[in-house]
Design goal:
With 323 residues, the chain is of the alpha/beta class. The strands form 2 sheets. The chain has a 6-stranded mixed sheet with strand order 6-7-8-3-9-10, sandwiched between helices. Strands 2-1-4-5 form a 4-stranded antiparallel sheet, with helices on one face. The longest helix is centred in the C-terminal third of the chain and has 17 residues. It binds adenosine-5'-triphosphate. Adenosine-5'-triphosphate binds next to strand 2 and helix 1. The site of adenosine-5'-triphosphate (ATP) has 22 residues, from strand 2 and helix 1.
Length: 323
């Protein structure tokens, strides 16, 4: 039976079986009247060796939660641990190393380097970090992802699904403790999307990896072991062994609640998804949004220019001080 996040209550001291956790995790953007409370005292524990999906309405804080758990963004209050290591308070350089050594990233734009072959893309973060890939593991990843006969191809010679598989292999190459995937199927047609979800599932089942995936898609979430539902910056529910129908039903309730919420509720801490209102300018306050996957090409170019970025596993991440 899948392990529920709830069974691993935060603060019990026993970190066994927990890949990452947060306590009282709060993230506010901006200040004064324009403050946006993206995360509101979130307690969460991500079970090791499981596939966890994070869902919720637009603006509910999914990406912010992922970025804070991955040390890509600073927190306003609370604590975050990766395994036993508290990452809140770590210096930039320590965080960069920790991300590089212990976390794999997959984004909907794949951030592959166009001039490098698939094989070179897969090992690039490790090459930059001066780490030698574990050949046996790498072979296993490549075979599991069905990339053996595509290794010499450049990204432009690969289909979208194959490119995403390369991105998946890159995230897995260093055998990270935790893989964060932000809408990894967002740019794919449904068949390629299914493929990638299948591979993430296999990464968990066959390779023992831990995956956290942010998604809007109930069918994608149905591939996970546990869905965490976020609303207004809080975890409001979870569902073990989810089905697409079950997740869809649960998501519909957000709409009902939001449609029925008092108009003044959103005023204290306005959020993009509040009260069913998503103003067109909702993202305008995101001077430097934490999403770093704004385009495959720009991402790859900057990645090519900056060793720190690609050493992060293709995050495209440059800075995490964006308030
Ligand atoms: N850099 C930023 N500056 C200001 N506000 C931000 C920033 N990043 C996120 N926010 C706000 O924080 C809230 C949560 O954003 P987040 O991107 O985490 O939501 P999400 O659930 O991932 O949304 P979506 O599903 O639309 O991607 C939103 O109201 C958003 O506008």
């Amino acid at each position: 039976m899948p392990t529920s996040a709830a069974e691993h209550a935060v603060g019990q001291g026993d970190a066994d079986g927990i890949a990452a956790r947060a306590r009282g995790l709060t993230k506010a953007y901006g200040s004064g009247e324009t403050t946006v409370l993206a995360l509101d005292s979130v307690d969460v524990a991500i079970a090791r060796g499981r596939f966890t999906a994070v869902m919720g309405p637009s603006g509910s804080g999914k990406s912010t939660l992922m970025h804070c758990l991955a040390g890509l963004d600073t927190v306003s209050a609370g604590q975050v641990w990766l395994g036993d290591t508290e990452i809140t308070g770590l210096k930039d350089r320590e965080l960069t190393r920790l991300r590089r050594d212990r976390i794999g990233f997959m984004f909907q734009s794949f951030n592959l380097i166009p001039t490098l072959s698939a094989a070179e893309n897969i090992t690039l973060p490790m090459d930059i970090a001066g780490q030698r890939p574990d050949r046996k593991w790498l072979d296993q990843v490549i075979d599991t992802l069905g990339l053996r006969d595509r290794l010499k191809h450049r990204p432009a010679q690969l289909s979208g699904g194959q490119q995403q598989r390369v991105a998946c292999a890159r995230a897995l190459a260093s055998r990270p403790e935790l893989i964060f995937a932000d809408e990894p199927t967002g740019n794919l047609d449904s068949r390629a999307g299914l493929e990638v979800l299948g591979f993430l599932r296999e990464a968990v089942d066959d390779l023992g990896q831990t995956v956290v995936m942010v998604t809007h898609d109930p069918s994608a979430a149905a591939h996970s072991d546990l869905v965490l539902f976020l609303a207004d910056g809080r975890i409001v529910d979870e569902m073990a062994r989810p089905t697409a129908e079950g997740v869809l039903e649960r998501m519909k309730r957000f709409d009902t609640v939001r449609a029925g919420s008092a108009p003044g509720d959103a005023d204290a801490h306005p959020r993009k998804g509040d009260a069913g209102v998503v103003p067109p300018q909702a993202g305008a306050d995101r001077a430097a949004p934490p999403k770093t996957d704004s385009g495959a090409d720009s991402g790859t170019d900057s990645a090519a220019d900056s060793g720190g970025v690609t050493a992060d596993g293709g995050t495209g991440h440059v800075s995490h001080d964006k308030d």
